[in-house]
Amino acid sequence: MILTATKISKSFGEAPNQTYALREVSFAVDFGEMLYIVGPSGSGKTTLLSIISGILRPDDGDVVVKDTDIWKLGSDALAGFRLQTIGFVFQDYHLFPRLTTLENVAIPLILRREPWEKSLAEARKTLQIVGLAEKESLPPYKLSGGEQQRVAIARAIVAQPDLLIFDEPTASLDGETGRKIVAFVKEHILNERRAIIIVTHDSRIYEYATRIIRMEDGRIVPGAGADHEK
Ligand SMILES: Nc1ncnc2c1ncn2[C@@H]1O[C@H](COP(=O)(O)OP(=O)(O)OP(=O)(O)O)[C@@H](O)[C@H]1O
């Protein structure tokens, strides 16, 4: 398994206005999987993504990524582990408008203190993978939405993370572009040494999942996909 989440609970606020966003959620993800997490608005998907990617601390439960219990790490070690192991793609891309497309892709390597020229060379190779080599010197806002999403994907994979996490990757794209992006990710980015987790509302891309788990009211709905439920 690349990721095992066990009995994750998280609430926000204080009684009597406390919201239970997650209630003892357990699941596991294997290498080579493209796992979708689906469910209605407010069911806890974003909270769960934030916890498994080391952004938000759970109230209870453990997240083990590649044998590391991430919430037992100190904050510096956790930040380092995330840079090394996890790539995150946001719905609205989060690209930096003042940097070129190439520099945007190089950021994770620069944060890891790789030399500037080497980082740009790696970023260039990665832009080739996503088919945007010829756009490298443009600022991202000169690109289409689908192209910006591909830049965000290139940035997420440039440091070769084992776990890739996408939050609503097609929400800002038209249907056809969204399908193309996800088909591309499955064909070119997924492999047996990594796993991809996608939170989505977009049923048009369900066909690309290797497994789908459904959340409702802070829990994983038992049945299809919820293999690690305890
Ligand atoms: N920072 C916060 N403070 C207070 N309540 C929060 C916070 N974040 C989430 N919640 C609550 O936790 C619950 C789960 O929210 P979450 O955003 O994880 O759901 P979601 O399934 O991702 O929804 P959506 O599909 O709309 O993004 C909701 O009731 C939400 O209002």
Automatic annotation (TrEMBL):
Q: Which residues form the ABC transporter domain?
A: 3-230
One Pfam family recorded for the sequence: ABC_tran
SMART domains, from UniProt?
Answer: AAA
> Which top-level group of life is the source organism from?
Bacteria
Q: Which PROSITE patterns match?
A: ABC_TRANSPORTER_1 (PS00211), ABC_TRANSPORTER_2 (PS50893)
Which controlled-vocabulary keywords does the entry list?
A: ATP-binding, Nucleotide-binding, Transport
The answer to whether the entry has keyword Transport is yes
Cellular-component GO terms for this entry: plasma membrane
| One example GO MF annotation | ATP hydrolysis activity
Indicate what this protein is called per its UniProt record.
ABC transporter ATP-binding protein
Q: What broad taxonomic lineage does this protein's source fall under?
A: Bacteria, Pseudomonadati, Pseudomonadota, Acidithiobacillia, Acidithiobacillales
